[in-house]
Design a protein that fits this description.
By secondary structure, the chain is α+β, with helices and mostly antiparallel strands. 20% of the residues lie in helices and 28% in strands. The two termini are 30 Å apart.
């Protein structure tokens, strides 16, 4: 038991939850008699005792402390993690309401000229938040997508429900992310629940999503944290912003990512 706690603590401090080995640790702990929720309990229910930020060696940056807002709800660098609803929420701004797009959400230092929304939330923290909720990236998505003969794969069990909400003059609006972009070739939105957690890559100590700013891609991007599994995601010149459904330019919004049930 002490050996496992030592490994967990070392991993948290040295790799900041960003290496995919955390998924292996989740599987490891899930097999022991002291319960499948042991690992996530350690991560969340000891946050009140954390006095220092977790240190990330990669990208020479520090991860913020996880702050408990109330029972089951935590603030992680501006990201709200809700264990009860199994969701992650981030603040953002409406960034593009017409023209070609390749992304749904990027960091404000990313490719904002190609994205529906921009946010101050770091991709590295967003990726880590999904791992904290014990969700694993989909494997081999890009190998299949870029292959000479890509197969039709059902990703429905891995697809997130992503809702964008905003308020204008006292009226509240909420839209599914898929409806905010149109595929010009078929004159319709992204297929419902098409977004999956593919996970970004760590190359030579650099977390690619942190460098590129790519969080949620419409046109497939291996550096992005999440990607579009719609069959046309490999096409970079068919996706446009849905002006009729998008919130006004520069309006603040809240984006909620509900994990698959």
């Amino acid at each position: 038991m002490q050996e496992y706690l030592f490994l967990l603590n070392s991993f948290l401090l040295k790799r900041a939850l960003l290496n995919y080995n955390i998924n292996k640790m989740v599987l490891l702990f899930s097999n022991f008699s002291f319960g499948r929720n042991f690992l996530i309990t350690i991560l969340f229910f000891t946050v009140d005792s954390f006095s220092n930020s977790l240190v990330a060696e990669d990208n020479a940056s520090n991860l913020p402390a996880i702050k408990k807002v109330k029972e089951g709800i935590y603030d992680f660098g501006g990201i709200i993690i809700d264990r009860k609803s199994n969701s992650v929420s981030i603040p953002a701004f409406s960034n593009q309401v017409n023209g070609l797009v390749e992304y749904a959400v990027v960091h404000e230092d990313g490719k904002i000229h190609e994205s529906l929304f921009r946010t101050t939330v770091r991709p590295q923290l967003f990726h880590t938040s999904l791992l904290l909720l014990k969700f694993k990236p989909v494997e081999d998505f890009f190998q299949n997508l870029w292959s000479d003969d890509p197969k039709s794969i059902d990703y429905s069990e891995n697809c997130f429900e992503i809702l964008v909400s905003w308020e204008i003059n006292g009226t509240n609006y909420e839209k599914e992310m898929e409806n905010l972009s149109i595929n010009q070739s078929r004159n319709g939105p992204i297929e419902k629940k098409s977004f999956i957690f593919t996970g970004s890559k760590m190359i030579e100590g650099t977390f690619l999503a942190e460098s590129s700013g790519s969080i949620l891609a419409i046109y497939a991007d291996e550096s992005a944290v999440m990607n579009n599994s719609d069959y046309d995601s490999s096409n970079d010149d068919v996706w446009i912003a849905n002006k009729q459904e998008m919130p006004p330019l520069e309006l603040p919004v809240l984006i909620r990512f509900h994990l698959p049930q």
